[in-house]
Amino acid sequence: MKILLNGYKGRMGQAIVAAAENAGAEIAAKSDVGEPWTREQVAACDAAVDFSFHEATPALAEICAETGTPLVIGTTGHTPEERARIEAAAKKIPVVWAGNYSVGVNVLNWLVGKAAALLDSSFQVEVVEMHHRHKKDAPSGTAAKLISLVENARGLDASAERHGRVGLVGERSRDEIGVHSLRGGSVVGDHTVIFAGEGERVELTHKAESRAIFANGAVHAAGWVVGKAPGIYGMEAVLGLDA
Ligand code: NAD
């Protein structure tokens, strides 16, 4: 299959190039800052894969919608306006949109949803993530997903989130979800969800050791998305975890 890769010069872009080669897929077109994609390139590919910057995704989604090219989005940190433009494009084409393409994290998601439902609010939730010092957005897309799974399981919304604490913040409420983003070094991506009860604690952790896990998942998703009905699919659908 032919893939257009947006953000090919980046850390993930390079990992996708290697993963595509291993999977026998062809990176038929590459784009990045100063080397924009063309409509002809998008139209000539079986799927587009975006691991670039949040501002770049909506225009790619819109050209994919025009040319009927399926899209895999790995980029994170989109604003509500950018998300709305991508969602509008996904009415015309199939889009896989996941904050994390690794199998392990998708199983972590499932476990966190179960734990949040089984443990009541006497088990208070804190989400801690750590990434390399170059990461530009916080919290990570993976952490955002974990937070939304806890909110859904407990009937909460974003107002429950407490992003960092400093000063005289007072006692934490039972429903508060603490979110902490650590940055430094070369960490590929660690996520822990802590359920802290009276006298006991459940901690669910995933540690990514290599970008290959995301790249392999994204290339797999690119193969999967071709021929699907328009709409937005998560990695659960690609991996059959939602069956
Ligand atoms: P990076 O900074 O190493 O690479 C980003 C690349 O995108 C760079 O080459 C940059 O020049 C390019 N770029 C920036 N603006 C662009 C534009 N307007 N058009 C085209 N290209 C543009 O970052 P990275 O570590 O490779 O991560 C890229 C994105 O993927 C981030 O949003 C990151 O959070 C996300 N990510 C997602 C997953 C996942 O599994 N979903 C995993 C890792 C990283």
Largest sheet: 6 strands, parallel
User: What form results from the Cα inertia axes?
Assistant: elongated
Order of helices and strands: EHEHEHEHEHEHEEEEHEH
Rg (CA only):
19 Å
> Which band does the percent of strand residues land in?
15-25%
Strand order of the largest sheet: 2-1-3-4-5-11
Distinct small molecules: nicotinamide-adenine-dinucleotide
- Uncertain segments are none
Binding site for NAD(+): 7-12, 74-76, 98-101
Pfam family, one: DapB_C
Binding site for NADP(+): 30
Family: Belongs to the DapB family.
Overview of this protein structure:
The chain has 243 residues and is an alpha/beta fold. The chain contains 8 helices and 11 strands. It has helices at 11-23, 39-44, 57-67, 80-89, 103-118, 141-154, 212-225, 235-239, and strands at 2-6, 26-31, 47-50, 71-73, 94-97, 124-131, 161-163, 177-183, 189-196, 201-208, 231-233. α3 runs parallel beside α4 (80-89). The longest helix is centred in the middle third of the chain and has 16 residues, at 103-118. The chain is elongated and about 60 Å long.
Any key phrases for this structure?
243 residues, alpha/beta, 8 helices, 37% helix, elongated, binds nicotinamide-adenine-dinucleotide
